[in-house]
Design a protein that fits this description.
alpha/beta; Rossmann fold; 4 domains; 8-stranded parallel barrel; globular; 954 residues; TIM Barrel
Length: 954
């Protein structure tokens, strides 16, 4: 039986924590009423602001009201009131059937009117008159001024939702004020059976506040007994506080004092549990709903909590035990947490948040009005004849209720096998990250502020793939922020890269971030061992205080972060894959430490989140449109997505590259992201290309001309414009949802990476061989004095004249390059220092020559980074790649403490292991191992390869 139905059987009403026009106009609210038993809605100003800023939902309303001479604040108030009226009308049947006890829509009093009781009364009176529905409730905050206004508003017959309740004392004051208002109505001969009230009692915010301080106390305490007592309170204080409020509610409204009013038809004030989404990733996502399934109460849930409870919640009545709840709060107080100070601080924060949200709404309307005047594009699609096919695909996606099923974590959108369903269902947590991380911003930013105060010069991140690419994007986009540690992302095992970072930093004044979802990734753990040794040489046993970890729960990294005494451990939600983790702790913690305003990033992401809500139809949806276009173009052979990025967004391509390649490259299919390839002439490109331009503010005039020429030449071109660099937050989410859409069209599971493990396994085998004193590259070897070239067996079989050991390197490379055919792409995979400019320029020149001479798309990646990025596509996608792996020996290696191998041996093992993995999948692959690690030797090798390429085309 549906857990939501059981809640209703237990006597609890279900309200939805969201109010926006599309919720009603799309029929989504009606569906939620029918399917989930929703019987009320309460406004969420943050969600409304996202809908205004992130979607065209209110554009017509804003344009129309702008002609009436209203201020921006008044426009916001009018639109909100219209939304409340729509929702009230949709809920009217519920209201009538329940005899006025349920079926309400709620909306806040204008935050500009909260300064005194008289203003609140007049504001509440005006708002009720503006909405003009019997099932509408005015939201009044539980400040001293708000409570002073409750009696008068209740006396006037206005339905009330008392908000921001954290303390038992405040709740009782609000409840008694409501009772006094009803008593006055009776005394004045007015009916009271048509007046209703709820008290919005906050739940998870209380735990978030207390838990943070508990963790701080645990870290500082030297007493195991005190630590145990503190940890026993984690995640328990909110529920205990709420249950005590419920006991007081029953004393007031079920006691003798309310009998006369009840006999007159009075409605008791019902407790409404709000802030019921779980903020701590260690707790079950339905914890608060399950703990507060109480008869006569209401539970308000945001979408993700509602769907989670519908999917796997456990609805059962848990009798409120005054003794146990009081004991929890008493223990909290006895351990030094001031209950009154805590609840007052939370009330102040909630009020400040409400005022801030209203300010953001006004700013969003100002921005929308300006945008209407400027009419500048944010996205444009020139699909070169594919418009009709894309429209059909969007309609098909809409008919499948894609967005609704995405939010419901329905894996059958992609695959229906039992194991596939389990894996997909456990990989969709990224969709709700804007909400989850918004609730954790304070914890992240306060930690970052502390790091800044400690005076660290650098922050060095060890991570691979999804654990490193978002921080790399953000570091390069924003640059260094004065006063904050300069962020260095080290995602290389190249000895020169490790040595360069060692020279740049002072280990004692550096914070090291060890970042790994699995907690077992060999690169960051090897880097940790090396740099921990450097710090230990300086500070001794306290070396762990220079390190933090970001990982999933219960990983080996979590264990040794505690063993080594790390400064901080951030536990990421387990249901988020690495490439989808940009907006999680993996992306936001390093960003905050380096001084980036992560609140702005999350705000941008929240706008895109609003566009993906199930009430937003797929047709003309800007997020769905991107995924549909890429999927349809890819299916038609336009599978080389060539990115043209402005300077500020240049590194963003590396993040998209991993997301798209690893998500779609499987089952012999895949979209091939082409990032960083120098822009050429229109005649340099084949009919397998689609171009995606992403710029910040305005496009360069020359770039505009080039894109126009590409369109005229028949190439699809998709263009995006970000108003500022903080819109990267929204772009992360846009591309994640779009990739999920494209995956559905391609018929693959975008959330697994079945072929990534192969290269890791072969790398481990080679490392084991090192321990036995031997390491050998795979394939057919041809060498000269300066380099050795190894050709995979699959490539050798395709070359007409068989390659033999001892042959001519130039001729063999020419024959290999002759294997490239129409529709292929070339992967240049280089195991060199990714931060050496001279190396980068040499490899980019090689890449350009390959593209110009052959006319094929070129993909480039530094190893081992690409193994965690495009490696899945190379092995699991269509066999269209021709791969050239470049690596080198070293003269000055670095030993990894505690390991049988060095950084150079690890790097070469990864290069050799990937070549073997590619060859085993039938890919055309060659590996060039340069004996001399110098830039001159690399340039000589590049000249040889370029000559072979040009010769192969003659």
């Amino acid at each position: 039986m549906d857990p939501l139905f059981i809640l209703r059987k237990l006597g609890q009403s279900i309200w939805y924590d969201n109010l926006r026009k599309a919720l009603v106009s799309s029929g989504e609210l009606k569906r939620m009423m029918d399917e989930y038993g929703v019987t009320g809605v309460t406004s969420n100003q943050s969600i409304f602001e996202r809908a205004v800023s992130g979607t065209p939902e209110y554009d017509d309303d804003i344009e129309k009201l702008s002609t009436e001479g209203l201020t921006d604040g008044d426009i916001a108030s009018r639109i909100l009131a219209m939304d409340a009226r729509l929702a009230s009308d949709a809920l009217m049947d519920v209201y009538d059937r329940s005899n006025g006890k349920d079926g309400f829509a709620c909306l806040e009093i204008d935050a500009r009117l909260l300064a005194d009781p008289a203003s609140m009364v007049s504001g509440g009176r005006a708002l009720a008159a503006l909405v003009d529905r019997p099932n509408f409730m005015v939201k009044v905050p539980a400040t001293s001024e708000g409570i002073a206004s409750i009696e008068e508003l209740a006396f006037e017959g206005i339905n009330l939702n008392v908000t921001h309740l954290f303390s038992i004392e405040r709740y009782m004051e609000a409840a008694l004020a409501y009772v006094k208002g009803l008593e006055r109505r009776v005394g004045a001969g007015r009916p009271i059976d048509n007046v209703a009230s709820v008290a919005s009692f906050e739940v998870s915010r209380f735990d978030s506040h207390i838990d943070k301080r508990i963790e701080e106390r645990v870290a500082a305490s030297a007493s195991n007994d005190e630590k145990a007592r503190l940890r026993a309170l984690l995640g328990r204080c909110s529920v205990a506080n709420a249950r005590l409020a419920l006991l007081k509610s029953r004393e007031i409204f079920e006691g003798a004092g309310f009998t006369r009013l009840r006999d007159e038809g009075a409605n008791p004030q019902r407790l409404l549990w709000v802030s019921t989404s779980v903020k701590n990733t260690r707790y079950p996502d339905t914890m608060y709903v399950e703990e507060l399934a109480e008869d006569g109460t209401i539970i308000a849930m945001p979408l993700h909590t509602l769907l989670a409870f519908h999917d796997h919640g456990k609805a059962r009545h848990k009798p409120s035990d005054a003794g146990s709840s009081s004991k929890v709060i008493s223990e909290m107080v006895s351990l030094g947490f001031d209950y009154k100070a805590t609840t007052e601080a939370l009330l102040a924060d909630a009020l400040a948040s409400q005022k801030k949200s209203q300010g953001l709404i006004t700013e969003a309307i100002v921005a929308k009005r300006k945008g209407m005047k400027d009419r500048k594009f944010e996205a444009s699609y020139a699909l070169s004849g594919f418009e009709g096919a894309v429209t059909v695909a969007i309609d098909e996606i809409g008919n499948k209720n894609f967005l609704g099923r995405l939010w419901a974590k329905d894996p059958t959108i992609w695959k229906d096998g039992p194991e596939e369903r389990r894996l997909i269902k456990d990989a969709l947590g990224w969709l709700t990250l804007p909400d989850l991380m918004e609730d954790n911003l304070e914890a992240i930013t306060s930690f970052a502020t502390g790091v800044k105060k400690e005076g660290y010069f650098h922050a060095v991140l060890f991570g691979m793939g999804g654990s490193s690419l978002a921080p790399l994007v953000l570091r390069n986009a924003f640059g260094p922020v004065p006063g904050y540690p300069a962020l260095i992302v080290l995602d290389s095992t190249d000895p020169e890269a490790v040595r360069a970072v060692t020279k740049e930093i002072d280990p004692q004044k550096t914070l090291f971030i060890v970042s790994s979802k699995s907690g077992t990734t060999i690169e960051p753990l090897s880097l940790f061992e090396y740099f921990y040794g450097l710090v230990y040489e300086t500070v001794g046993e306290e070396a762990g205080r220079n390190f933090i970890a970001i990982t999933d729960a219960d990983t080996p990294l979590e264990g040794f972060s505690r063993k080594y005494g790390f400064k901080r451990l951030f536990i990421n939600p387990r249901d988020i894959g690495g490439r989808f983790s940009a907006l999680s702790y993996f992306g936001l913690v390093p960003a905050a430490i380096s001084g980036i305003d992560i609140e702005k990033l999350i705000h941008s992401a929240s706008g895109i989140s609003a566009a993906t809500h199930p009430c937003m139809k797929e047709r003309e949806n800007p997020v769905v449109m991107l995924g549909a276009a890429l999927g349809i173009l890819g299916r038609a052979g336009r599978d080389k997505i060539t990115f043209v990025l402005s300077r500020e967004a240049a590194t963003f391509g590396l993040w998209i590259e991993q997301l798209v390649a690893e998500s779609t490259g499987k089952e012999g299919k895949g979209l091939v992201p082409v990032v960083g390839e120098p822009l050429g002439r229109t005649e340099d490109y084949g009919d397998d290309r689609v171009f995606v331009s992403i710029c910040v503010k305005e496009e360069d005039k020359d770039l505009k001309k080039t894109l126009k020429a590409l369109v005229e030449a028949g190439h699809p071109v998709i263009s995006f414009r970000m108003k500022d660099i903080y819109e990267l937050g929204g772009e992360f989410l846009r591309w994640e949802v779009a990739t999920a859409v494209a995956g559905q069209i391609l018929g693959i599971n975008p959330f697994d990476q079945p072929d990534v493990e192969l290269a890791k396994k072969l790398t481990r085998a080679r490392l084991l061989a090192i321990e036995k004193g031997m390491i050998s590259p795979p394939g057919v070897e041809i060498r000269d004095k300066k380099l050795r070239v190894y050709f995979g067996e699959a490539a050798c079989k395709l070359i007409k004249k068989p390659l033999a050991k001892g042959g001519d390197v130039k001729k063999a490379m020419k024959d290999f390059m002759g294997l490239i055919k129409k529709g292929d792409y070339i992967g240049v995979l280089a195991y060199f220092d990714p931060n050496d400019r001279a190396i980068d320029e040499t490899l980019m020149d090689l890449r350009k020559t390959l593209r110009d001479a052959i006319g094929a798309a070129t993909q480039f990646g530094y190893g081992p980074r690409y193994l965690h990025s495009t490696g899945q596509l190379h092995k699991g996608g269509a066999n269209k790649g021709v791969f050239l792996i470049l690596c080198h020996e070293t003269k000055d290696d670095i030993k990894i403490p505690g390991s049988a191998f060095s950084f150079s041996e690890l790097e070469l093992s990864q290069a050799f292991g990937d070549m073997e993995a590619l060859d085993s999948r039938g890919c055309r692959v060659a590996l060039v191992n340069i004996k001399d690690p110098s830039i001159e030797a690399l340039r000589e090798a590049s000249i040889l390869i370029k000559g072979a390429v040009e010769a192969s085309r003659r």
